[in-house]
Amino acid sequence: MGAVLCGGRSSRLGTDKFALRHPSGPTLLQHACRRLAALTSSVAVVGGGDADPDFLALPDAADDQGPVAGIVAALRWAKSQNAAGCLVTPVDMPSLMVADLAALLGLWKRNASQPACLVHADDGRVQPLVGVYPIAVLDQLQALLHTPHRSLSRWLNRHPFDSLVLSADRMVNINRPQDWQAFLQSFRSSMNANLRFQTPGQAIDAVADRLSVVSVDQTVDDVCGRVLASDVTADRDSPAADVSAMDGYALREEDRKQGVALEISGHAMPGSPPPRIAPRCVVKIFTGAVVPDEADLVIRREDVIESEHSIVLADAAMACPAGANIRRAGENVPCGGPVLSRGQLIRSPQRAALENVGVDRPPVYRRVRVTVITTGDELVNASQSPLKPWQIRNSNQAALVAALRPHRWIDLANPLHAIDDPETLRQTVDQAIHDSDAVLLTGGVSAGDHDYVPAIVRQLGADVVFHKLPIRPGKPILAAVSEQGKLIVGLPGNPVSATMGCRRFVQPWLSKMAGIADWTPSPPSVHLQSPGTKTLPLHWMRGVRLIAPGLAVPVVGRGSGDLVALGQTDGFVELPPDASGEGPWPFFGWA
């Protein structure tokens, strides 16, 4: 059960505190009630009369008895409902988050025989008006009502209770006009501070700088698609000897004479040691074969007149420079020279280069372990049918898995789904961070009553690098980094926002964590056909379809939930604020 304490009022604010409007829209009373409604089965308002007809109104247990009377009234009501306790919060602490209260409730559930309250981080003072009180303490609090000193803090300090430490800025009481103005200013400043990065590139770099690269794996049999974890050098000259670049004839310079028949004294074949060249003779040689030591050049077959056992040089053969058509030993790379660099992605060309220098199992970086968590009570599996009108198939999970699975340097954990319950979500995210290098969430990152992700991420000790960017779609995106350099990303729940956000932001960050040296996005450019004149004051990620090399046409959608339009795109272009026209614009294709 949950109860909002409204008994303490302040005429200095010009109106009852519970009627003040939170910057997000609702009154302070509505704001407080919604926080509790997200966590408890029923919510009551104590001492506020019928200020909010959507919630049960309870009178104080006694007039002018302070917060003890309010908590006693809440506990009596909770007892009548056969509840084990009651979560109480005052109406005038608007900075509290649902996740804060969820953490407090979770703490109390581990020892439900005694209260659990918030404690100020700066000075250790208890805040008794934000707490979970078990029914077992009702008699003691009722007795406290009839004592001369009805200090709830003093009573708590004489009894065992569990405490959750919270920063002072989240525990501000609104008692005076200056308190209210300070809260409004702080709220608006925090909203603006979240937009401290003005471009996607700035935000990507800021997060990437704090990410840890995964460890090295020395025991991988199949390294294709993995990331090289050390430089590779040549174990010998490449080529290892002078070899012929052509099919033709190897000869001494002194025997290059026009009109004279030169006997074929031997054949030089790839994979065999070269024969000697007898005086006034030539050796027939094939591409890739080792050139005999005596030879000064190779003449192409096209530049000679051949017979069964001899050749005669044509005019073109006389014009060839000394050393013609011979690839010298070490001209590709000398022994000990660089072949591949740490951080290269091993594709077929790199695999061939490794084999050429005798490296079959090079050290590679461990695969980046990624967990995808979708959130929301409305999401159901794709196979479920029929659906209720309020149910939505979980397309975000499918999109993110499809975007990440093709990369062999990613180890994709089984995707998870969490309902809109803050404690369940907190536990899910906590375990995912423990088990993974990166956690990707969709939904719950905006400013709604059920958007718990930002507070939970902070609660779990991660540092939020940014929350919200000047982009569309996807403005509410959140990125955080743990103390261990792990990545936590909160993508908006709208499918277009989540899909584009994964491509634009998540893939570069994961590439950095994977050890890929060239992780910085360097997209190609395309021109737009029929771009229109519409502009946005934000960075606009606009879905397009390619119609020719370097040319695309916009795909008109009906918002960030339009999956039909998204399915017609090959990627998106990114336009800076207030820009329009044909471009060229950077193009981010679906990987």
Structural account:
The chain is an alpha/beta fold and 591 residues long. The strands form 8 sheets. Strands 3-2-1-4-6-5-7 form a 7-stranded mixed β-sheet, with helices on both faces. Strands 20, 23, 24, 25, 26, 28 and 29 form a 7-stranded mixed β-sheet that branches. The chain has a 6-stranded mixed β-sheet with strand order 14-11-13-12-16-15. Helix 2 runs antiparallel to helix 4 (138-144) and helix 7 (200-208) crosses helix 13 (495-513). The longest helix has 19 residues, at 495-513. The chain is elongated. The chain contains 14 helices and 34 strands.
Label this structure with key terms.
591 residues; elongated; 14 helices; seven-stranded mixed beta sheet; alpha/beta
